[in-house]
Amino acid sequence: MLQKSTVQLLRLPFSYFLMPLYWFALSFVPNINWCRAALIFGLLHLLLYPASNGYNSYMDRDEASIGGVEKPMPPTKQLFWVSMGMDVLGMALAFCISLPFFVAYSCYILCSRLYSYRGIRLKQYPIIGFATVIINQGALTFFMVYHGASSDLTTTMPWQPALAAAFLIGGFYPITQVYQHRQDADDGVTTISILLGIRGTFLFCGAMYGIVAGLLLSYFSSIHQLAVFALLLIFFTPIIVYVSKWLNMVWQDATKADFKHTMQLNWLASTCTNLAFITLLMMHQL
């Protein structure tokens, strides 16, 4: 029987915040194998991400708010074993897709554990921790979806969207840390957001999304589909408006960089980007 703390700390709803990367990558696949695409969706959102969340929570033992959970319960040993079991199941299913997918999936798990494990704890280093996250949750995840969902299991992919996936996470990840500065510092962790400061984090994330826009503009221009790029910008407009208003509040009062506003942004940004990339997927399938 799963304990309440285990269910809470797996943070299944948090997978929604990472779901845009799946739809983003899938929208670029020319010929989709829908059975494998469905399996990959489940592997990422029901096994890989929750297991990583659970292991991270087991190592951190947070007492203050964390992503998607305002009042985390104390973790138990069950959380550790459930996370390990989900990893084993995920790796077994990943092997059914292809060897390259299995290697990439296993690499994600390994990097996630090195990120959180107390003996190594890559997350305590701002640059290395940031790079670990954007490479794995961004570029590597893009590869897993693009390769695994391709009907021919191709190992080549368009470089601009793959790089844009990394910078998408680069713009999302630091913002999720702005309310955790004291908690992270007390735990001996210097995040990229702490390094940048609260105001600097907002400016940095704005720059990351600017790079994403530039990469996508370059890609869609090269294939003569600028109208698609313009459509994506329409979906992103509510996010830009919210961040601009929040930035104005934070500039006047740093305490506004809190859990409430962060979660509001996460839900808004995830919803808008999910809709944007699902629309892009549907357009490419017509």
UniProtKB/TrEMBL annotation:
It comes from the Bacteria. It is found in: Membrane. It is a multi-pass membrane protein. Keywords: Membrane, Transmembrane, Transmembrane helix. The chain crosses the membrane at residues 21-49, 88-115, 127-146, 158-175, 196-220, 226-244, 265-283. Coiled coil: none annotated. The keyword Transmembrane applies. InterPro entries: UbiA_prenyltransferase (IPR000537). This is UbiA family prenyltransferase. It comes from Parasediminibacterium paludis.
